[in-house]
Design brief:
This protein has 15 helices and 12 strands. With about 425 residues, it is α/β, with parallel strands linked by helices. Helix 1 runs parallel beside helix 12 and helix 6 crosses helix 15.
């Protein structure tokens, strides 16, 4: 019992530290969203890689045309001309180009065909090609995923921090909103939420999310991001490594948290979450170890504690102390989830009704998400092979990616981006 009490105490300490992080996250988002952005709106190039048909793709792409920004271009890049996403791209381009009003006259668009990757992830290859196709007058590169649906002030808010020439990059993150619901979709939203709250005010510890990141062209070149992308499978981890190496901070912009309106089944949930941890193990092994050890502690103590309580109750023994420890851990987790939910409601106020529907899951299902994290981290220990947008890769190192299998049926490539 004393061994259980010792590790239960460690679990509670871990939960208290996490709760303090949730309070800092809420405070940071309140400060940042209340602050008036500096006006900095140079010509920007939005690079939007597409592959397969994301759920809600038309709405996601249309949001890129509705940005409140003086002048910018959108480069849609894919590897092949027969990608089904291009038909949607063309429809949206046509829709906005034929509008009677002039609200989109400031948006230039074009399609870039990158061809198949041979020594890196397909998305990374596509981005490398697209960057070379940007307008020479563009001062800022902006990267967005096709499963992200940014609000109208997204581009302006994301570029504004780059007024400081010593800023490495500005980034947002995603928040999953299930469309039809379902256990797997809800669990993915809960699982992903803890990553969203890992960003904050410490620019030297933040990371870029490839679905919503802006960087000056000069900084991109200064940090040698193209070199870091060579042979890489993860665009955002590689860019983060390049900026950290150059000792350039990454600014988290709460107003650039973007929603992803998608559902998934159980197989897609496991594939998506495990892929993230396999990539993390290769690009940030210290983070992977933290995830593995912290969630191992949680699974053993939380669920082991429940088993201990039931056993002692059946034997007629006292179970008050272990019950109190487990309830304390669970309650602290609920409080952390509630702080995060309150924080997210500030920049995503327009989705408040949808967020409210997911509140119960975020408050009470987080132990299942922690269990899933442990499974993901454990799976990453035994394999570095992933499937991403219909292509299988072997993650040999941060700068060496093996392509195991080429293009699979496009219907399979609808699964999530990063």
């Amino acid at each position: 019992m004393w061994v259980f009490y010792f590790f239960a105490a460690l679990l509670i300490i871990q939960a208290i530290i996490s709760l303090r992080g949730g309070a800092r996250y809420l405070s940071y988002i309140r400060r940042e969203t209340a602050r008036e952005n500096q006006i900095f709106t140079p010509y920007a190039s939005i690079i939007a890689p597409c592959r397969g048909l994301d759920q809600g793709l038309r709405e996601n792409l249309a949001a890129l045309f509705r940005q409140d920004y003086p002048a910018y271009e959108i480069i849609f890049v894919t590897d092949h001309a027969d990608d089904p996403a291009l038909a949607i791209v063309e429809e949206v381009r046509q829709e906005f180009s034929t509008m009677a009003h002039g609200s989109t006259a400031h948006v230039a668009t074009r399609i870039c065909l990158a061809g198949e990757a041979t020594e890196s992830g397909q998305k990374v290859h596509n981005l490398r090609v697209a960057v070379s196709e940007t307008n020479p007058q563009s001062e800022v590169f902006v990267f967005v995923d096709s499963d992200a649906r940014p609000r109208t002030d997204w581009l302006r808010s994301l570029v504004a921090p780059l007024a400081d020439e010593e800023m490495g990059a500005a980034t947002g993150y995603r928040w999953f909103i299930p469309v039809s619901g379902g256990f797997a979709s809800i669990m993915r939203a809960v699982w992903n939420a803890s990553i969203a709250s890992a960003l904050g005010e410490q620019g030297n510890k933040n990371f870029c999310w490839g679905g919503s990141t802006a960087i000056r062209r000069t900084t991109f070149e200064r940090a040698h991001v193209l070199d870091e992308w060579h042979g890489a499978a993860s665009d955002d981890f590689a860019m983060t490594r390049a900026l950290h190496r150059a000792q350039l901070p990454i600014h988290f912009v709460p107003d650039c948290l973007t929603t992803s309106h998608e559902d998934c089944n159980l197989a897609e949930l496991l594939e998506f979450t495990t892929r993230q941890l396999k990539i993390t193990r290769v690009y940030a092994p210290h983070l992977w170890r933290i995830v593995l050890i912290s969630n191992l502690l949680f699974v053993l103590i939380f669920f082991g504690g429940i088993a201990l309580i039931v056993t002692r109750a059946l034997l007629g023994l006292s179970f008050i102390v272990p019950l109190a420890l487990i309830l304390a851990s669970y309650t602290l987790g609920i409080l952390k989830a509630h702080l995060r939910w309150r924080a997210i409601n500030i920049p995503l106020a327009q989705h408040r009704a949808e967020l409210r529907r997911g509140l119960f899951a975020h408050l009470f299902l987080w132990p299942l998400a922690s269990t899933l994290y442990f499974y993901n981290a454990l799976a990453a220990l035994f394999s570095r092979r992933i499937k991403w947008r219909g292509i299988c890769y072997e993650l040999k190192s941060p700068k060496e990616t093996g392509i195991i299998k080429g293009r699979i049926q496009e219907s399979e490539s609808r699964s999530q981006n990063d």
